[in-house]
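Recall the central idea of this unit: under ordinary conditions, the amino acid sequence of a chain determines the structure it adopts. In this exercise we apply that idea directly, starting from the sequence alone.
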Amino acid sequence: MNVSGLLAWMMVVSVMTPLCSETYFDQCYQQAKKDCDNISSVRRELDQINSDLLELLTRRTAYVQRAGDLKSLTTKVANDCHRVQEQREQIVQISLELGLPVEVATATFETIVEQSTRYQQAYIDSLYQSQEINSHLGSTKAFSSFFYSRN
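Accordingly, the structure predicted from this sequence is:
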């Protein structure tokens, strides 16, 4: 499904979603209204959520790097267009279920996926480069030991 098809599908699903059902977003908003009666308390909560998000992003990036280890053995390419498309569709579906504005979720995850792919490709390239250097050093050491053992 291309991006315009995905957006059309999102519009249809969002129109079909009943407005009367309470979503997770609605529950969170009600909780925020109870917990925060001034901007300082809202900011404290946002700071904590940001910290939580950074911990999750760290964990996610560790798995991105591990995927890079595995990809470096075969494709040497980080970007998997099919996987990215599957993720987009999942993000839209989960966002709708949670009541999260789809445009917030998709823009956020597109940035995460784009940056993760760049990070992973740089990591794969560094592994490949390291292998080339080690291979070169290995042959240089073999030559050196052969050369010096003869003299």
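The chain has five helices and no strands.
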